[in-house]
Structure formats: C-alpha cells, structure tokens
Structures
1.
Amino acid sequence: MRNPIGNFLDTVVELFYPSNCVGCGHPQDFGTFLCNDCKATSPRIQAPFCRCCSRPFDGVIAGEFCCPNCEDRKPAFDCVVSNYQAKGVLRDLIHRFKYGRQYHLRRVLVEYLVEATQDPRIQAGPVHYLVPVPLHPTRLRERGFNQADALAETLSKRTRVPVLRCVERQRYTNTQTRFDRVERMQNLRDAFALRKNNNVRGKHLVLLDDVLTTGSTLHECALVLRAAGAESVRAITAARG
Ligand SMILES: [Zn+2]
Ligand SMILES: [Zn+2]
C-alpha cells in the first residue's frame, strides 16, 4: 500500500502544479483535470441499456429492459452502474493509472464513480460500505497498489461512505484478457472469499472496480457477499471494457 509520505507528496504536487488537462496537456481552469474535448472521446452511454449490467443496446426499446446475458445467468449483484465505454482518453487514463503508476489520476477517475453513485439505482437505497474488488497479494506486489482500493478510498472521501475491505482473493488467477466468457467464469470460481472477522449480514454494499468487462469478477465477489448475508450488493465501475 501507499505510505503516508507518498500520499502527502502527491497532494503537494497536485496543489502547486499548474492545472493542465491530464489528457491533452492544455492549460485548464484551476481544479479542472480533464478538458471537454478529451471527455468527449468517451461519451456517456445513452439509454436504452440493461437495467442490471448497464450494457447498451443499439435500437429502440421503450421502458426498462434486461439483456440476454443477465436473463440467462442471473448475476449475484443487483445491478452494476457503468456509464462510459473504456475508449478514447478514458481508456488511456485507466491504463496509465493502473499500469503506469500515475496514482494522481485517481482524482480524475473518481469523478466517473461519483457520477455512478448518483444513478437512481444507487440512490434507491442506503449504502453502508464501499467494497473494492481485491487483488491477489502477488499481483499487488507487482503493481504496487490496488486500483479499485485507491478509487474506493478517494470516493469515500467524497461521499463519506466508509470502505470495507471484506473480500480477499485467495487464488492467483491467470490474467483474463485472453479468455472468453465461460473460461473467465471457470478461472474465477472460488477465487474470492470473505476476509476473516468481517460481518456484512444485513448490510447494503456497493462493490467497486475500475473497469467492467464481462461482469464475472463482480458476480463472483457478489456471490461471496450474498452468502455472507449482505442485504443488497450493487456495483459501480468507472468504465466498461
Ligand atoms: Zn484535454
Ligand atoms: Zn445485462
């Protein structure tokens, strides 16, 4: 994890650094991290989209709908709010944040999560805890930090909802990008567990990750939380892959 001095230095650098767009580098008003042109490279997904997984649908559907994926395999989460495609500048920012160790980009990415918390599906009920999707300790050592954890912490400061690190990754899973959906699900089976001495019974939880791909990871985490008696498990991500 990050040490306090590292966090402090980040903050000092951010305070005294001129405000430039993190996408294109052009000067911005103080406090603006991303210009409108860069923002526009990953536009917000418009309705209709699946009420459960937010997957967009090309075409016209009146009212709410549930996509075939969610109909087939009832996900363990109640919904996942993910309103931006991981493309354009947003995709680059996530990549730089995650693999380039540009830790300060959490401030930009958290805006997408703040927006997700304002979705009616999240606003509909109380949220007791934000639960970041965990990384396996080996992966954590390689990467230096857990991107979901860093985003949860930043979001918690904004929303005052506490972070609960109650899920752990107990199996080292192969990197998933090469797998199709079924392989991913097999790869992830039993990869997660409830961390000792955590009680989520009766709680309303919001899982949090940087990117939604097939939803298998969130599904597996939600299964664990449901089995532990969580009352509801919703999820938010900054973007969808
Ligand atoms: Zn820009
Ligand atoms: Zn769906």
Note: The longest strand covers residues 204-212.
2.
Amino acid sequence: MQYRTFQKTGEQVSLLGMGTMRLPLTADGKVDRPEAIAMIRRSIDQGVNYVDTAYMYHDGESEKVVGEALKEGYREKVFLADKMPVWLAKDEEKMKELFDEQFARLDVDVIDMYLVHNVTVPIWKRVQKFHVLDFLKEKQAEGKIKHIGFSFHDELPLFKEVIDAWDWDFCQIQLNYMDKELQAGEEGLRYAASKNLPVVIMEPLKGGKLTDVLPDSVEALWKQAEIQRTPAEWALRWVADHPEVMTILSGMSAPEQLEENLKILSDAAPGSLTEKERSIIDQASAEYNKLIQYSCTACKYCMPCPQKIDIPTAIRFYNDWFLYEENPKIKDDYPIWLPKGHQASDCVACKACEGHCPQHLPISEIMQKTAEIFE
Ligand code: SF4
Ligand code: SF4
C-alpha cells in the first residue's frame, strides 16, 4: 500500500480508503454483515488505514457495521471518518442528537475525521444558520472529533468560497476522468492543495459506471491499448496520478474489488502516467462524451424553476443514461438527487427556463423524456 501525508499532523494515510456506501448485500438486499466486516478487516490487514462511513449509508447499517468491524484491535489502526447529515436536522437540537446517535451506532469514543456532509448552496446556508462549525469546534475541544472537513457536491465557485470561509483540516470531492470539470473538479483539487488542504477523493469509478457496462467504443479503445488494464485500473491510476490527492475512497461491494484496488494502488505513484497513457484516457473520455444527448454546461442560467426542479441535474441524469449504457444504478440515484415533488415529471412546461439557456436547449421536452425513463 502507498501512503500519502496528512499535512496537518504529518501522519501517513493510505492511498486506498475503505468506502462503506456500497457494502456487500445478501440476497434479500440487506448488508451482508459477516462479509462486510471480513472485507473491512482484510483491507486494514493489507494496510488500508482510512475507513469512511456516513449517517445515511445503508440506512444507518454502515455505521453499525463499521463500528463492529473496528472492534478486536482494529479501531486503533485506522483514521475513522464520519459525516454530519445537516439536511436531516430541522434545528440545532436535532443536529446534536444526530451527532450522539452516530457515536452510539459506531460505539467509539473518538471520530478522527469528521465532515460536514454533502455541502451544496442550501446546506451551506443551513451550516451557518445552525452554527454547525461552532458546534464541531466545541466537540473538537472536548476530544470527540479530531479533524474537521467537508464533503462537496456543488459548483466550483461555492467550493472556493467554503474553503476560504473557515480553517478546515481537509475536504472531500468527487473526481474521476469523466468529471474533470464537474463540481470542484481538477481546478478545485488544485485550489484546495494551494491552501494546503488535504483532499479525499470519492467516486473515482463514478459509482461503478466506468466499470460495469462499457460502450463498445470505449471497450475497443481499452483493448487496443499497449498496456492491458481493467477499466477500474485506468480510472484509479488517473486519480492517483494527481499528487494533490491524499486518499481515494472506493465503495467496495465484493472482496474481489478490494483485492483489485489493493493491487492497483500499491504502485500507482503520482505523476507516473505517461503522455501516451493519459492520451488513451482522454480518448475514452471523448468516446463517452460523444454519447451525450444534450450539451448542458450546468451554468444554471435557467434556474430557479418555479417547480423547484434542479434542471441541470435532471439533464445530467438523462445524459448519463445514454453514456453509461442504461446502468440501473443511475435509476437508483435519481430520487436521491431529485426528490419527489421536484422531479422531471413535475415540470409544467411553462418554459420560463428556456429563454435563459445559452445552449438553447428544449428543457421542457428534456424533462418529459427524463421522466419517461426515471419515473
Ligand atoms: S419549463 Fe419546466 S423545467 Fe422549465 S421552468 Fe417551467 S417547470 Fe421548470
Ligand atoms: S441554462 Fe441551459 S446549459 Fe445552463 S444549466 Fe440550464 S439547461 Fe443547462
């Protein structure tokens, strides 16, 4: 296992982090506890020392399973990461209850890396309204949490604003070779690094969409490459090539995925990809992009929608459906990003948005097509 330095303390953090959002499941869809615990412990035995969970992963089961896996001497071997689901708190009291509940589920005394989960414009507003950062500082002073960070899912300007607003210890962003310019993206990664902020990466395989089912053109490209690598290896090596990355979280669902990730990240040194290798990855990205149906740039000039539909996100789902070979995981994610009442089918075709779109996209028509696929 390779290790990278957590600048604040000089401690070494494994390049592969154990993500627990997609744990192995039993036939009836529940978390396969024995398998999940064995996998988490196997990862630690092989040198992984960063284990990440969150309040809502597997409806709370992830925190409980992680807590159990870290018994019998494993707790001391890892940085344990958990996150505050600010959107579930209607007031400050509820936020404190959630925090205590996380400790009860995990059955630990300290959480090493504690993040404000899923920072977006509304969540950032709520963080301020509920004085979340003052609360976390208090908990840090009490020794309940060691380092404070945030995970991010909005656009680059907000990312920079959040970084500049507070003295964070680290942050977490989504990054893979298809999302170089999405959300914080590569520019955000470099910005965080310029502020000496360690960066944890999530979704390096785009939730499995870069590995599950490939478009023929991408599969052909990988086959023609001089060096034969799996799609997961190409994707992970692309992320690991960035020296600014501290650790890469992979949400592993099966022991074989863990073994593959351990192998790949044992020698993926920063800056080790050759020009030729980078060019193959760029070509794969271009092949995916040819499948885009509507070229929405996520500029948000069309917003706000009177029906409170997140228009660029709905269009992204529509495009992803064609990019990633109708991967069923896209359908699973749709209601998470577009909650009931504000989904594509709630569009009333008022067309208030269309006149503002610099790409002249037929937004109401796209909403109808999106609803036909996902609802
Ligand atoms: S056309 Fe649909 S998406 Fe556009 S503003 Fe009206 S309701 Fe919202
Ligand atoms: S204005 Fe057009 S390009 Fe911009 S986010 Fe809206 S739909 Fe996408």
Note: The CA atoms of residues 87 and 317 lie 22 Å apart.
